[in-house]
Write a structure and sequence with these properties.
With 310 residues, the chain is of the alpha/beta class. It has twelve helices and twelve strands. A five-stranded mixed beta sheet has the order 4-3-5-12-6. A five-stranded mixed beta sheet has the order 9-8-10-7-11, sandwiched between helices. A two-stranded antiparallel ribbon has the order 1-2. Helix 9 links the parallel strand 8 and strand 9. It starts with a helix and ends with a helix.
C-alpha cells in the first residue's frame, strides 16, 4: 500500500458523510486539511475521486470503486481488532511445552489440570521428546517452555523453576529377588551382586536418565551382564511387576507399587543423588501473555500441586 492509510480513512469518511464539512466535524480535522488529503490521494492515484458542487460532493466511478473496496478493508480491520479483544477478554492463547513422556504423566499433567481449569480457552501443545531433544527444541525457539531434569546442576538463572526432586532406585518383585538369590546361591547377596546377576531393565541409552544410571554403575564398579532396554518408565514398572527382572525407576513414579508391596526396593549402600526437575521459561518467551500466565500459575500453585501429587 503506497498511500498513507490516514488518507484512505479521510476519503472514506467524506464518501460516507457526502460532505467535506461533515467529515471534518466527525474526524476533528479542519476542512482545508480534509480537502488537501483528498487532493493528495487523487494525485497519487492519478484519478478523480470526488466531484465538488455547491450541493456537496458526489463520487466518480473511480471514487465508488475505491469506496467499496475500502469498506471491505476497514470491515476486515475491525473484525481483526474484535478478535484480538476477544482473545484478551477470554484469555485465549497458545503455548507449546516440551517434555519427556515420563515427566509429562507424573509431573506435567497435575500442573496442566489446574492451569486449564483457570484458562479453559488456551490451546496447549505437548511435544514429547527426550530431555536432551527438548533442550534443543527450546534453544531453536520451537517450543515456549520445557519441563526437564537438571541432573548436572546447570544454572539456568531465573529461567528455571524447580518443582520437584527425582530419586532413582532399583526395584523388583519379592519373588524375583528370592529366586535370584537362590539361583546365584547367595542368600545374603548385596545389591551390587544382585544387579550384576539380574536381568537389569533400563531406559534406552540415549535417555538422560539412563546416562545418569550408567554413570552411577560405572562409578561403583557394577558390571551389568544382562540387561533389557525399555522405551519408557511405565514399561519398566510393568515389566518389573511381572517378574521380568530388576528395573531402575524413579521412586515417585513407582510409589503406588512400593506402598502396596508388589515391588520392593533394593537397598543401595551409596544411594544415587537426587535430581531436580523444573520448568524452563526463557525471558524472551514471557512476552507472550499465555506463557507469562503459565509461569505465574506454576509459581503460585507449585506447593499445593507437589503436595497433592505425593
Amino acid at each position: 500500500m503506497e498511500q498513507n492509510l490516514n488518507q484512505y480513512r479521510i476519503f472514506y469518511a467524506v464518501a460516507q458523510a457526502g460532505s467535506i464539512s461533515k467529515a471534518s466535524e466527525k474526524l476533528y480535522i479542519s476542512q482545508p486539511a480534509v480537502s488537501k488529503s483528498i487532493s493528495k490521494l487523487e494525485e497519487s492515484l492519478d484519478a478523480v475521486l470526488l466531484k465538488r458542487s455547491r450541493k456537496g460532493i458526489t463520487l466518480t466511478d473511480e471514487g465508488k470503486t475505491l469506496f467499496e473496496q475500502l469498506g471491505i478493508a476497514f470491515a476486515a480491520i475491525e473484525a481483526g481488532e474484535k478478535k484480538i479483544k476477544n482473545l484478551h477478554d477470554l484469555g485465549i492463547g497458545k503455548i507449546k511445552i516440551g517434555v519427556s513422556a515420563s515427566l509429562c504423566r507424573f509431573i506435567l499433567v497435575p500442573f496442566l489440570k489446574g492451569f486449564i481449569e483457570e484458562n479453559p480457552h488456551v490451546s496447549i501443545t505437548i511435544v514429547n521428546q527426550s530431555s536432551a531433544k527438548t533442550f534443543k527444541l527450546l534453544e531453536q525457539g520451537k517450543i515456549d517452555a520445557a519441563l526437564v531434569v537438571n541432573q548436572n546442576g546447570d544454572d539456568f538463572g531465573d529461567d528455571f523453576i524447580a518443582v520437584s526432586e527425582l530419586e532413582d532406585i532399583f526395584v523388583a518383585t519379592p519373588t524375583y529377588i528370592e529366586n535370584l538369590k537362590t539361583r546365584i546361591a547367595s542368600p545374603d547377596a548385596d545389591t551390587p551382586t544382585l544387579l550384576e546377576s539380574a536381568n537389569l531393565m533400563l531406559l534406552d541409552e540415549e535417555n538422560i536418565s539412563r546416562i545418569f544410571v550408567d554413570n552411577y554403575l560405572n562409578q561403583h564398579g557394577i558390571e551389568v551382564n544382562k540387561f533389557l532396554e525399555v522405551t519408557n518408565m511405565d514399561l519398566l514398572i510393568e515389566f518389573a511387576k511381572i517378574g521380568m527382572g530388576v528395573s531402575c525407576v524413579i521412586r515417585e513414579m513407582a510409589r503406588k507399587e512400593l506402598d502396596e508391596g508388589s515391588l520392593v526396593e533394593l537397598p543401595l549402600k551409596f544411594p544415587m543423588n537426587k535430581r531436580t526437575v523444573g520448568f524452563i521459561l526463557p525471558k524472551e518467551n514471557l512476552a507472550v501473555p499465555t506463557v507469562s500466565n503459565f509461569k505465574k500459575f506454576i509459581v503460585e500453585n507449585m506447593e499445593q500441586i507437589v503436595t497433592e501429587r505425593k
